[in-house]
Write a structure and sequence with these properties.
Number of domains: 2
CATH superfamily of the largest domain: Glycogen Phosphorylase B
EC number: 2.4.1.1
Bound molecules: ligand GL2
Largest sheet: 9 strands, mixed
Strand order of the largest sheet: 7-10-11-4-1-12-13-17-18
Number of strands: 24
Mean pLDDT: 96
Protein name: Alpha-1,4 glucan phosphorylase
Enzyme class: transferase
Pfam families: Phosphorylase (PF00343)
Helix content: 40-55%
InterPro entries: Glycg_phsphrylas (IPR011833), Glyco_trans_35 (IPR000811), Pyridoxal_P_attach_site (IPR035090)
CATH topology of the largest domain: Rossmann fold
CATH class of the largest domain: Alpha Beta
Length: 801
């Protein structure tokens, strides 16, 4: 086995590799090198070190004919890789020293890397954490995704409103991946199905080529490495019409090429909603088909049949996006390898697993039968047959669940029927998946649904993001917590030690200063470091209730104005997050937050006690700076609506206390850290259902709350939008008359919990003790634990370590 790289690599040899790459890869001499050149040299030097463990792991998997996991995901929200890889290879300090000896600063170079933002939010970041954990625990695996030319749009604010600008992470190339021009598959679209000698044949109307790009994913300690294989749509050379080009029609000549490329051109910017667009379905099939073809080809390299596929292959569908994997695998088995339909279905089901990430009806993908027929006519036939089988299985039921209902193909139901395991992502969510989403399926297959609570990688989210805290932990309990996060429990013994609590407070201050400096440099924003930092950072969505937070902030502001000397705890309210470009209400809420910030931040009476900071373009890199600097984590979604959340875990692991509802993984976080160390408020899932069924619930709630009436009146009167007093009329109107997300119903209890926060924070020792207990008890939420559960409960794969 390849050893941890660090002992063998000296600063001197790292330095000479850097210089070699600077000269031969970047083509520069040190005297004339820019930060970009140094980044190219650094990333190539690090990548060189990844190759040995990568080859060794791949070779062992082949030699021992190990079962492999294939993680299919439309999103991998990776962020930057330089420091992550340096840490996992044990080269972080060596790289920094080598650069320093050349007069170059590691952080400056690492900060030059653009974020790989190939994802929208939690679902995509989870996939990235799981990749890193699979490599760390030695699970032989491939991540399969799309190599989008443009990741998630960049957000800016113009007059406080969100603007979307194209993201261009590949503009200067990607130093991490290897192009594999020999690994290409044709992916078919459209066309017809016809019969030939009693067998059905699909003759696609067009083909688009998928080309592989591979990056090594190295686990912590460098003992194992897996592959992230991203597909890019590459048009055949013959798609370019040279005749037309020569005759001067340049645009038309390039058109077929452009169309083919569109499959990996851009990430759809919708978080938990779906547009139902043909291009999106085509992207999903493009990813799935190329991956399944690749998996089948790899299996056949050293097995003579596909009969034993399930012994060697586990395919995980990250949400319904790759749900066409079932029909695709069945199609390949039946049409190309002569399998009987039922046997092909059984085998596919043994191979496939499906993770559900949301209950929101708008997120459960449905495609019209017409669209399916146009794009994937053979797959539609297969789905029709699966639907028949599904109805037969439910014999006796008057309203059987269907894969196709009316003119809609239900991808969630399809994913369920073609998987041997279906999992939710927190205990509460899994229960709701069982009872609300898939009760008919659950009755037929009571063992199929399992829970696997999400996790986060402690390497990126503690060691990399919070070096001061990570050092304190290592000094206190020694090394090893990075791969055995339960060891953080040992910190509990220090939770009453004033010296330790003080040392913890110093790490928090250091993180605040770091973030404050970054905010100044990047966004010219001021963050006081002597205040309680209260953060809500995530996608903008009504169910996440940023509105509840900003309305409370208005109440807090009004109270400070009324009584400025009441001993208020200075607070900074941080908001960050993007709204889907067509989600108008979410965009109005962004505008409201920015408008309130404008008034509050410019009020000399309150400035020293309350600030609102909303940096644009929240991404992984910002999260790495912001989360460690936070004292309070806002996890305030309407109960029953956030499947899990993972930001909640990152904050608690970094010693922020949570103010939250009994939703998603909040429930389990509270159980682990202890109810005394968590600020709970709000209706429960059952109460939410009850409340929604009461007519006039929002009006009744507002009429009961003087605070809420005052706030809504201020907003409605244009206190925060003097140039356009009725700007937020719709938001206010909706609060009185509908309020599906129960902002009004939960307001007073949230207010109460915020008062408790205020009181707890005044007692510094008590607060720090609570924070330390949070850190100490978060071991369960390591993504290593989640991945090991998938390995035993879903994939049937053993660690190679
Ligand atoms: C999400 C859920 O909304 C979120 O609660 C969960 O933590 C993540 C990961 O399981 O998945 N589902 C989803 O579609 N997105 C999410 O973040 N985008």
């Amino acid at each position: 086995m390849t050893e941890h790289t660090s002992p063998e690599t000296s600063v001197a040899s790292f330095r000479s590799s850097l210089l070699k790459h600077l000269q031969f890869t970047a083509g520069k001499d040190p005297k004339h090198s820019t930060v970009f050149d140094w980044r190219i040299a650094l990333s190539h030097t690090l990548r060189d070190h990844a190759v040995d463990p990568w080859f060794a792991s791949t070779r062992r998997t082949w030699d021992e004919d190990r079962k492999r996991v294939y993680y299919l995901s439309m999103e991998f929200l990776i962020g930057r890789l330089t420091e992550d890889l340096a840490i996992n290879l044990g080269l972080r300090d060596i790289a920094a020293e080598a650069l320093e000896s050349l007069g170059v600063d590691f952080e400056t170079v690492a900060s030059e890397e653009p974020d790989a933002a190939l994802g929208n939010g939690g679902l995509g970041r989870l996939a990235a954490c799981y990749l890193e954990s699979m490599a760390t625990v030695g699970c032989p695996a491939y991540g399969y995704g799309l190599r989008y030319e443009h990741g998630l749009f960049e957000q800016s604010f113009k007059d406080g409103r969100q603007q979307e600008n194209p993201e261009n992470w590949l503009a200067h190339g990607n130093p991490w991946d290897y192009a594999r021009p020999e690994t290409v598959y044709g992916v078919g679209f459209g066309g017809d199905v016809y019969e030939e000698n009693g067998v059905l044949r699909w003759q696609p109307g067009t083909h688009v080529q998928a080309q592989a790009f591979d990056s090594p994913v190295v686990g912590y300690g460098g003992k194992w490495a897996n592959t992230l294989r991203l597909w890019a749509a590459t048009p055949n050379a013959d798609l370019f019409d040279l005749g037309r080009f020569n005759s001067g029609d340049f645009a038309a000549a390039a058109e077929p090429e452009a169309l083919a490329r569109s499959l990996s051109r851009v990430l759809y910017p919708n978080d938990t909603t779906d547009g139902g667009k043909q291009l999106r379905l085509s992207q999903e099939y493009f990813l799935t088909s190329a991956s399944v073809q690749d998996i089948v080809r790899r299996h056949l390299v050293n097995h003579d049949s596909l009969e034993n596929l399930d012994a060697h292959v586990a395919i995980q569908m990250n949400d319904t996006h790759p749900a066409i994997a079932g029909p695709e695998l069945i199609r390949i088995l039946v049409d190309e390898h002569g399998f009987d339909f039922d046997r092909a279905t059984d085998l596919s089901t043994l191979v496939l697993g499906y993770t559900n990430h949301t209950l929101l009806p708008e997120a459960l993908e449905r495609w019209t039968v017409g669209l399916m027929r146009n794009v994937l006519p053979r797959h539609l036939q297969i789905i029709e047959r699966l639907d028949q089988k599904f109805v037969e299985l439910q014999a006796g039921s008057h309203h059987p669940a269907r894969l196709i209902s009316g003119d809609q193909v239900n991808m969630g139901d399809l994913a369920f029927t073609t998987s041997h395991r279906v999992n939710g992502v927190s205990a509460l969510h899994t229960e709701l998946v069982r009872t609300e989403l898939f009760p008919a399926h659950d009755a037929l297959h009571p063992d199929r649904i399992v829970n696997i609570t999400n996790g986060i990688t402690p390497r990126r989210w503690l060691k990399l993001a919070n070096p001061a805290l990570a050092d304190l932990i290592t000094k206190t309990i020694g090394e090893g917590w990075e791969t055995d996060l339960d060891r953080l429990r040992e910190l509990e013994a220090h939770a009453d030690d004033p010296a330790f609590l003080n040392a913890f407070a110093q790490t928090k201050l250091a993180a605040k200063e770091r973030f404050s400096q970054w905010l100044k440099e990047e966004h010219d924003l001021d963050l006081p470091t002597n205040a309680l930092v209260d953060s809500q950072v995530k996608r903008m969505h009504e169910y996440k209730r940023q509105l509840l937070n900003i309305l409370w902030t208005i109440a807090h502001y009004q109270r400070i104005k009324r009584d400025p000397n009441a001993g208020w705890v200075p607070r900074v309210k941080i908001f960050a997050g993007k709204a889907a470009p067509s989600y108008h209400t979410a965009k109005d809420i962004i505008k409201l937050i920015n408008d309130v910030a404008e008034v509050v931040n410019n009020d000399p009476e309150t400035q020293h006690l309350l600030r609102i900071v909303f940096p644009p373009n929240y991404n992984v890199t910002m999260a790495e700076k912001l989360i460690p600097a936070s004292d309070l984590s806002e996890q305030i979604s309407t109960a029953g609506m956030e499947a899990s959340g993972t930001g909640n875990m990152k904050f608690a692991l970094n010693g922020a206390l949570t103010i939250g509802t009994l939703d998603g993984a909040n429930v389990e976080i509270r159980e682990h850290v202890g109810a005394d160390n968590f600020f709970l408020f709000g209706l429960t899932t059952e109460e939410v259902a009850q409340r929604r069924s009461q007519r006039g619930h929002s009006r009744a709630a507002i009429e009961k709350s003087q605070a809420l009436q005052d706030i809504l009146q201020a907003v409605a009167e244009g206190t925060f939008s003097p140039d356009e007093p009725y700007r937020f009329g719709q938001l206010v109107d909706n609060m009185w008359n509908s309020d599906w997300f129960l902002v009004a119903s939960d307001f007073d209890d949230y207010d109460r919990a915020q008062q408790e926060v205020e009181e707890a924070y005044r007692d510094t020792a008590r607060w720090n003790r609570m924070a330390v207990l949070n850190i100490a008890r978060m071991g369960y939420f390591s993504s290593d634990r989640s991945v090991r559960e998938y390995m035993t409960e879903v994939w049937g794969v053993e660690s190679a370590l």
